């Protein structure tokens, strides 16, 4: 769209610059930090080669924020951290101050405003999540609501460092999985092939694009009522929903046939074991707003077992590698079933190519 | 409009079963969403309500009604479209309501993706400017941050987008990526506040995204491509799985050891902890117990970061620092989850020339992808389909044993003899 009365000429500046956003003590010691400690949950102390120290107070946010909330965070930053703050990739806010006397009053203030202080060290940090019903055009569920429900039950684990290692969570409202790989991930799984809205399709769909999007070549061109349309080979279809992203007439979402699956063992850090992808451990959980109790229950079971059985520094996937999947299912009370056997490309790499057995 | 008034004065949908509370309130009852105000975690519903009651923006009432409707019907009701600003082809995510006949107040609810400073650092002046402009033109709802790394300003009508953008742009903000082009990047805290940082990821991030700013605003490639910059192998930005170009800090020489701090750690934690939590967990058994202390055999170390994480005061990355480039990380669609794989084991990243050399390399890589990739194919998928060998040849990157976990295990190949 063009507006003739425009007076401003666009500057394609890219990301906002960062220097002026850094606390002066950060700027002074940039690249010269020596070590850090975690004096209490939610607080980091970084010490520089120069001897300067900076304290970080970390707090949880809903991620789905408002200008009012952001202005409140700014007030905290002006009062306690010289007007500087940053965010983490897990939607936590951080306030950096060189003054140790600011730490306790800042924590009090944040908590009284409803922002829990925590999320550092060996704890459950907040959830990397997506848009859901609030704003995506293809979601089968909400994101912020699932996260809120989950974090309510994990509040204690956010504020205390009682886990063997960090726990990263994610949620996603379709199997594109924008939330990403995590120690424990909650991802939508459709259970029925898309229903095709033929009338709508002829108006909105670029047919070859939708055909090309299908990972198992289940979509074929056809003619319906004299108009070019598409059909789905339901025996082949794996209900992934990819076609819906390309064509809104491939109606995959359904209140009853869009369920949840739970995945575990994703790890991006290179520490100890190589980075690993997730495995499915529960599926067919109902999409049950506004609180999704079945989902929070399953996540809770996994975390309880990991907390009790994990050794220091073991991430969820590493803990499972040690105790084995058999014991994982026993200790969490979840059930392994035939659909958890991989049937997609490179499936053999997930088979047990050894005589190692657990009884 | 009549319907809008109806909704506002509680004449229409869902108000029926509220049993009061409608009277002087601006918002309609949202019993499902209200459940999400319970519990200790900060509530986005509470936040939205506060904002709506203060600003009385009808769009906010509409979006809450629509969300409540979704919670009841378990379906989503947004569809995409096309809205941009002058000269750009991306950066605004368009949302039109599919039920605007029921809930007209949120018939348009577009998102502006805004690129934050690398590392998500702010001062309050920047943030307040952003809030003030956003409140003037948009709904006042902000996501900090989207998984793509953007600030997401959610909820604006098409006819306000250009002016809002101009005001933001005057203050140094620019739109983020969308579509088949360069995307907004993500960086960890990096040298600003992390002793593990092995390169200046914030500077490289700024440099790289400015370099590709045109392709970010005017997508013209096969598909999206994303950078993520983690300043050490702890990879706090999830680069290996979530970016096509994962730039991960590393070092070449020996881990720096400060003996007195090692001693102090052992005195505090004991030899059992040294053995069980450090030595035994080294993936390549590079560490051994020696005279009650630890000895690292540098040639065996793969720079996994574990021992440095456990003993940050005693151990630090070596002095010869730089980056590794991994490529091809992506999620499910459509060949399955792909982890990035190592392409460039080491590159220095200290000077402006180093950054320029890196940009030249990335240009070569993207040119290759532009020529060899298929429509809607991420670069990792192109490399897998065409072959890593062919990719390396095409771009002119030296073959290196670090690019594979092990040599091939099948004999079917053709070689030049
Ligand atoms: C209609 C199609 C799509 C829409 C509307 C869409 C929307 C989005 C949105 C809104 C986000 C940010 C989520 C957040 O942080 O709240 C996102 C991120 C993401 N999307 Fe999509 N997406 C679409 C297609 C895809 C496809 C086809 C793929 C995969 C091939 C994909 C993979 C991802 C991934 C992996 C992320 C996280 C990115 C990151 O961490 O950098 N999306 N998408
Ligand atoms: S996971 Fe799917 S539904 Fe959710 S935001 Fe991403 S693309 Fe949209
Ligand atoms: S849901 Fe997936 S498998 Fe089924 S037709 Fe669509 S793209 Fe193909
Ligand atoms: S990736 Fe490394 S350098 Fe960056 S914040 Fe994490 S530990 Fe620090
Ligand atoms: S960094 Fe990792 S591989 Fe290297 S010595 Fe430490 S634990 Fe071993």
From TrEMBL, chain A:
Identify the Pfam families for this entry.
NIR_SIR (PF01077), NIR_SIR_ferr (PF03460)
Q: What is its EC number?
A: 1.8.99.1
Bilayer-spanning residue ranges: none
Q: Start and end of every 4Fe-4S ferredoxin-type domain?
A: 228-257
GO terms for molecular function, please? 4 iron, 4 sulfur cluster binding; dissimilatory sulfite reductase (NADH) activity; electron transfer activity; heme binding; metal ion binding; sulfite reductase (ferredoxin) activity; sulfite reductase activity
Q: Which UniProt keywords apply?
A: 4Fe-4S, Iron, Iron-sulfur, Metal-binding, Oxidoreductase
Cofactor(s) listed: [4Fe-4S] cluster; siroheme
* Superkingdom classification of source: Bacteria
Protein name as it appears in the record: Dissimilatory sulfite reductase beta subunit
Q: Name one GO cellular component term.
A: sulfite reductase complex (NADPH)
Say if the entry is tagged with keyword Magnesium.
no
Record GO biological process: sulfate assimilation
* PROSITE patterns tied to this protein: 4FE4S_FER_1, 4FE4S_FER_2
From TrEMBL, chain B:
Positions of the Nitrite/Sulfite reductase ferredoxin-like domain: 107-170
Where does the Nitrite/sulphite reductase 4Fe-4S domain start and stop, copy by copy?
179-397
Tell me the PROSITE patterns matching this sequence: PROKAR_LIPOPROTEIN (PS51257)
Q: Which domain of life is it from?
A: Bacteria
Q: Keywords in UniProt for this one?
A: 4Fe-4S, Iron, Iron-sulfur, Metal-binding, Oxidoreductase
Q: Which InterPro entries match?
A: DsrA (IPR011806), NiRdtase/SiRdtase_haem-b_fer (IPR005117), Nit/Sulf_reduc_fer-like_dom_sf (IPR036136), NO2/SO3_Rdtase_4Fe4S_dom (IPR006067), NO2/SO3_Rdtase_4Fe4S_sf (IPR045854)
Give the EC number(s) under which this enzyme is classified: 1.8.99.1
Catalytic EC class: oxidoreductase
Can you name one GO molecular function term for this protein?
4 iron, 4 sulfur cluster binding
Pfam families listed in its UniProt record: NIR_SIR, NIR_SIR_ferr
Gene3D superfamilies (alphabetical): 3.30.70.20, 3.30.70.2500, 6.10.140.1420, Sulfite Reductase Hemoprotein, domain 1 (3.30.413.10)
Q: What is this protein called?
A: Dissimilatory sulfite reductase alpha subunit
**The species this protein was found in:** Chlorobium luteolum (strain DSM 273 / BCRC 81028 / 2530) (Pelodictyon luteolum)
The uppermost taxa in this organism's lineage are: Bacteria, Pseudomonadati, Chlorobiota, Chlorobiia, Chlorobiales
